[in-house]
Amino acid sequence: MSIAFDGHRAVNDLSLKLELGEVYALLGPNGAGKTTTLNMILGFLQPDSGSIHVDDVDATTDPLAARARTAYLPETVMLHPALTAIENLTYFALLAGRKLDATTARGLLGDAGLLANAHDRRAGGFSKGMRQKVGVAIALAKDARLLLLDEPTSGLDASAANDLSDVIRNASQRGLAVLMATHDLFRVKDVAHRLGILRAGQLVDERDAASIGPVELERLYLDRLAA
User: Fold this and answer.
1) What are the φ and ψ backbone dihedral angles of 147, each rounded to 5 degrees?
2) Which of 56, 59, 177, 192 could form a disulfide with 18 if both were Cys (CB 3.0 to 4.6 A apart)?
3) Full residue range of the structural domain in which residue 6 is found
4) Pair 198, 110 in one domain
């Protein structure tokens, strides 16, 4: 898929395929085209060429159906501050067409890593990491097939980032395909099965995450961006 703005190719002939249960890390600096790629998958931007399929649904011709199979976790998860975690989850699940009872909602929040003592607290006092966990619970409630994460570790401390890694692994084990746009090389080695390096809208390298060490990955990343 490709897209240009004012004659500038923001994404150029990008081809990605994720299997269910796979975690793919799309690496690149700001301006590389990562968020633009996610916005095309979500149907917010129409590619100039190419096709996008989510669970065999063509996202370019039927974006609503594709979006129903997709969950999106932005860099900042917006929740209703006056509602509790349980209330936020049940409200957003209802918008997606699923009615949750309290037991199911608590189970999903627990699966997303939110401690039980936070389930009945108002979201206005939540940290970024806690809001992300509610966001993941919303994705699980939606029964999505694809989870998109945009810079998920930005602004998180080490403990919250480790918690997020556990959440991503859990989503993978539940059979979700996970595409995370990030420049966090350390976290990539921690959770991803495959990684791709995006530079100026082009995929310039792709590797199995298990085949490359952290020092080698950092060197490869810097070399590819400097080429």
Assistant:
1) -115, 120
2) 177
3) 1-69+144-227
4) no
Which residues of the chain are modeled with pLDDT < 50?
Answer: none
Cα–Cα distance for residue pair 98/141, rounded to 1 Å: 8
Domain endpoint, select from 122, 143, 164: 143
* DSSP assignments along the chain, one per residue: -BEEETTEEEE-S------TT-EEEEE--TTSSHHHHHHHHTTSS--SB---EETTEETTT-HHHHHHTEEEE-SS----TTSBHHHHHHHHHHHTT----HHHHHHHHHHTT--GGGTTSBGGG--HHHHHHHHHHHHHHHT-SEEEEESTTTT--HHHHHHHHHHHHHHHHTT-EEEEEE--HHHHHHH-SEEEEEETTEEEEEEEGGGS-HHHHHHHHHHHHH-
In the chain, the number of structural domains is 2
- The reply to whether 164 and 56 lie within a common domain is yes
pLDDT digits (tens, 9 = 90+) for 14-36: 999 999 999 999 999 888 889 99
Q: Tell me the pLDDT tens digit for each residue of 78-99.
A: 899 999 999 999 999 988 888 9
Residue 167's CATH number: 3.40.50.300
Q: Please tell me whether residues 44 and 116 are part of one structural domain.
A: no
